[in-house]
Each structure stands twice: as C-alpha cells, then as structure tokens.
Amino acid sequence: MMSEKNTTASPLSSQSPVSSLQPLAPQSAIPNPRSPIGLFSATMLIVGNTIGVGIFTTSGVVAAHLPSPGWILLAWILGGLLSLAGALVWAELGAAFPHAGGEYVYVREACGPFWGFLCGWASFLASISGSIAVLAIALANYLLAFLPASVNGLVLWHVTLGDMVYSLSLNQVVGIGLMWLITSINYRGLQLGSFTQNILSMSKLLAIGALLVAGFSWGSGSWSNVMPLFPDLMPQGHLSALGVALIPIIFAYTGWNSVAYIAGEVRTPETTLPRSALLGTMITMGVYLALNLLYLYALPVAALKGVVQVGDAVANALFAGAGWVIAVLIAISIASALNVTVLTGGRIAFAMACDDVFFPRAANLHPRFQVPGHALLLQATWTSLLILSGTFEQLLTYTTVVIVGFSIVTTSGLFILRRQRPTFPRPYHVWGYPWVPALYVVASVGLLLNALWEQPVECFFGVLLCVAGVPAYRWWRNVDSVSGGA
Known about the structure:
Amino acid/polyamine transporter I, disordered N terminus, single chain
C-alpha cells in the first residue's frame, strides 16, 4: 500500500485501486477542479509540442532520399498516419487510466511496477530533461542571433584540466534562464501554463498561415518544381529509401502524446483525450503537408537535397533576405515546445514519487497552485546540470533507442491489458484494433532495428542508461519498505 504522505498529499491523488483485478498502485490522478484542461487547450498542447524545429530542418534530409515531390509528400502523409495510430493508442490508455505520468502509468499497469519505473526513469533522466535542455539552448541560440555576432556564442569562462577543456557560454546561461522562466510560469498553476501554451500555439499557427499565404501569393516560386508529382511510379530502391526517410519524419511528429502526461487534469478525459489526439495530429499533418508543398514550390527537389536549414533557404528563395522571418517562427515554435515539455514532464516524477519509487517530495503538490511544484523544481535543477555539462545532446541520442523501445512496450501493453483485463472500464476504444496498434508496433520495431544497425554504440549507451535504473529501483523500494510502505 502507499505511504500516508502520498494518500493525503493533494486532490490529484486518491486512494482508489486502478484495477479491480490487479491493483498495482493506488495512486490515481483526478481532474483538478480549479483549472481542468478542455478540448481546445488539450489540442493546443499537442500542436504546440509537435510543430517544432523539425519541420524547418528535416525536409532537406527527406529530399535527399526521395528525389520526387510526390514521394516526399507521401512520406509525410505516412508519417502522420503512423503518429495518429500511436496517438489513438495513447488515447485509449489515457482514458482508461486518467493519471499523471503518461506511459509510465501504462507500462506499470501492463507489465508491472519495475518496467514502469524503467520507463519513467529513462524519460525523466534523459528523454524529458534532455529535450528541455536542447530546446532551451536552441531558443537561446535563435534569440541571441538577433544580437551582434560578438555576443552570440560568447564564452564567459573556461578551464583546462589535462586534455579536457570546459567552457561556459552566454548561450548556456541564457538557456538556463529561459528554462527557469518557463518553469516558473508552470509552477504558478496549470491554468497559467495552459494559457501561455494557447497563446504560443495560436501565434505559431497564425504565423505559419501568414507564411503560406504570402509564399503562395507573392513568393518567387514555381509550380513546375512540383509537377509531375511522380516522374517514376516505383523506381528501384524507393521502398527502402522511404523507410530511411520516415525516420526523421517520425521524430518531427513526436509530441502527439503530450496530453497523456496530464490526463488526470483533463476535463472528461474519456472524450477529450481521443478528440484532442485526432484533432492535434490532423492539424499537424495539414501544416506539415502545406509547408512541404511550399518548400517544393519555392525550390526544386535537387536544390532541397541535404539542406539542413531548409526553412531559411525557402524563405530567402521566396523573398530575398527574409530568413529572419523563419528565425522568428522557429523561435516561437521552440518556445511553444519548451513550455509543453516543462508542463508535462514534471508529472512523470510526480507519478513515480506517488508510487514510492522516486524522491518523496516530488509527490507533493503546491498548496496554492495545485501543481507538482517540487517535481517541476527537481526537473529544472537536473536540466540545468545537463545544460551546464554540455553533453545533453549526446545523452538524448543515447536514449533514443530506449524511448522507441518503451513506445513499443507501451503499445504492446494495450494488447496485454485487453487480454488480462477484458472487463476493465474503457471509455474509449482505439479505432481499428488490433490492426492500428499493430501497425504502430511493427513500424516502431523497424525504426528500432534501423537505429541498432546504424548507431550501435549510441544504442549500447542507451541500454546502459536503462540498466542503471535497476539498482535505483531496488534502492527506492528498500527505502519504502524500511519506512513502512509496501
């Protein structure tokens, strides 16, 4: 059973079993009566977290593998449909278990508390905190780019220890400051954090809409770059190339599971979760297709191949010297994704602490703002260390294989729960079961195998990071046992 501190800590927790057949953990998040998230805000969370830097940087990589407009657009459609399949799976799991923590809760319920902990451990230690660190530094880089070149990248301090050189840059300091600013906004309540997200997401969509209208109406592009869509119906090697191109596309679509982390604070999750998943993913797919069509309208496929800063290249091609427009748009996109990641990430530590497998204070809610304040502060502190270390990008790469692996485990958990708990209340049933979740599992396995083949060293370190959670789990369980918990 739970320790007393967690059963009475806050209105986000209740002492009700999660399953009438196998109650693994009594922690259960319920909607916050002060500021429950509605359909619009839930959809904006997904849109804000999904539409980020990826759409402005990956299309050139995709064009390098798929040398025709039709195949490029088709790849983005397939990536969107695959993401939609995953989003609908998470919607069923979230509606059945409307608790804080997302896939940590789902893996815990399907596979047991140990595997749930490993999932949460990898998410908190690298996936979530690492993403926040990368986004914070990226936002600092784009904001400082508007200042004189002597300021951007300025080294404030450096030290040499043997063969090792460590330096602290202004960008790192600004990134930490921005991250703490976003954390403080979300610390002051879900309503403020959600309102901020609505503003950022809507600003992003309006800016992208203005870019599309201006680009197609007055930009120096040509529809001859787009036609014919398929100069060759099925050239040799296109299927394998399509699989390779889908890898960066899938990661550009990541973020569709944002609402799952705060499912317990969503109004009527049984309807809001699936609807927001559908709307958010469909809006994202529409935006991605429209932007890629604009890219092809501005530049031929040959000119897009291998270009990383494809957004800048397209803006300059459509309107001479307009690269700053894309820089502003990217900055808004990064700020939006940063806010969502901070808002949702703290709920993982909160859920783990409620299960007595994380720092106990992370299970406490702020008495006034009713958010997991200690978990947010702990997340910000760890993220600051990642930013200062300068190794967060490598850490994020190492854990990619773990995150993809646990997404496979989470989706497979749907099959396990359907079989083991056939009578468990499920307000929403994923459309196309079992084929839709099976498609997601097969595609994710393909991405995982490709990662193991292409980046075996990084994958090895990712596995080591996950294995490091084993002694941590045992330590927390022993501490809980000594303190009187189950």
